[in-house]
Specification:
alpha/beta, Quinone Oxidoreductase, Chain A, domain 1, Rossmann fold, 6-stranded parallel β-sheet, binds NADPH dihydro-nicotinamide-adenine-dinucleotide phosphate, NAD(P)-bd_dom_sf, NADP-dependent oxidoreductase, ADH-like_C, MDR_fam
Length: 337
């Protein structure tokens, strides 16, 4: 094991879209685990759209990072040293750790990953936070039932791809918006969506919806916001449910643009529009993970991962989220097990 630990730190706060100058890769010493801590070798790290918000100097549901702070996110890693923590060398764990090759953490903030149940990377995707977001957002907030039409944006991503499949399992007609023909084929051919719409080659979202969702929209899972959401709101049916999960089309905007005002549609439809924060469902994560694990094992839910190799390429993986470069969950593989 070399003595050097490469760690990504926030070099400066981005204005608008982040770029490589946002990140600094520093070479540091491998930390020593304190009492009750373990030293973890990072195997996979997750890059997620919400991290953009932590780069901003403003209040949010996550603490902002200071310039110079290590970036943090969900990691799957291997315990290489245990200093009285409840884990042994060789155990695979997941937790919120630094974007680094090695990190220390107290035992209680880590969760064991069973490598015999599913590939360990799934603890960051379909069986991790994104899968749980889809699970609770679809079943508890958007609540599609048999015969409903369910629309999801960011449909080919980590959350959207699972949400659409869960709605399908509930018996809904599922329509997904995604940003390429390859993604549309993935939705229709691999995941069983009824219709995929490539929003980058579609000028008129309302007309596309009229074709894909001729009976209107009963449940909407929004990952994206912006003009697609404006269009979906005009097609909401009576008592429709909207789960507002993400607004990635706005994350790099310094000022949130004033969109067309569609709240009259909410009055007409008596729709319920509800913000969703996956952490609110933490007491039920075990239930969600178990259920998702069963569906993955039975083949009822498929998943895809886009894996970027090497910690040095983590910024590219993160920036790619805003360009739609990923299909399914975007991961960075930092080391082999
Ligand atoms: P994804 O895997 O879906 O990756 C992001 C995707 O967003 C890209 O692949 C891209 O796909 C799409 N995208 C990027 N920019 C735009 C744009 N301007 N307009 C439309 N689509 C765009 O990420 P996640 O599945 O991890 O997250 C999806 C959403 O869910 C995010 O908004 C995220 O913040 C939110 N989220 C919310 C949680 C909560 O608790 N509320 C928890 C987890 C995630 P394409 O090619 O289709 O453009």
């Amino acid at each position: 094991m070399s003595n050097t630990n490469r760690v990504y730190r926030l070099a400066k706060r981005p204005e608008g879209t982040p770029d490589h100058d946002t990140f600094e890769l520093s070479e540091e010493e491998i930390p020593e685990p304190g009492p009750g801590e373990v030293l973890i070798k990072t195997l996979y790290l997750s890059v997620d759209p919400y991290m953009r918000d932590r780069m901003r100097d403003s209040e949010s549901y996550e603490e902002p990072w200071d310039v110079g702070d290590p970036l943090k996110g969900a990691v799957v890693g291997e315990v290489v040293e245990s200093n009285g923590a409840r884990f042994d060398e060789g155990d695979v764990v997941t937790g919120e750790l630094e974007w680094a090759e090695y990190a220390t953490a107290p035992g209680p903030v880590l969760t064991e990953v069973n490598p015999d149940l599913a590939p360990i990377s799934t603890a960051l995707g379909v069986l991790g936070m994104p899968g749980l977001t889809a699970y609770f957002g679809t079943r508890e907030v958007a609540q599609p039932s048999a015969g409903d039409t369910f629309v999801v944006t960011g449909a080919a991503g980590a959350v959207g791809s699972v949400a659409g499949q869960l709605a399908k399992l509930q018996g809904a007609r599922v329509v997904g918006f995604a940003g390429s023909d390859e993604k549309v084929s993935f939705l229709e051919d691999d995941l069983g969506f009824d219709v995929g719409i490539n929003y980058k080659t579609t000028d008129d979202y309302q007309a596309a919806l009229d074709e894909a969702a001729p009976d209107g929209v009963d449940a909407y899972f929004d990952n994206v916001g912006g003009p697609i959401t404006d269009a979906v709101f005009t097609r909401l049916n009576t008592d429709a449910r909207v789960a507002v999960c993400g607004q990635i089309s706005l994350y790099n905007s310094e000022d949130v643009p004033m969109g067309p005002r569609k709240l009259t549609q909410v009055i007409q439809s008596r729709a319920t529009v509800e913000g969703l924060l996956v952490s609110d469902f933490e007491p039920r994560f075990e239930e969600g993970t178990k259920q998702l694990g069963q569906w993955v094992a039975s083949g009822d839910i498929s998943y895809r991962e886009t894996v970027t190799e090497g910690i040095e390429n983590a910024p590219d993986a993160f920036l790619g989220l805003f360009e739609g470069e990923n299909i399914g969950k975007q991961l960075v593989q930092v080391a082999e097990r």
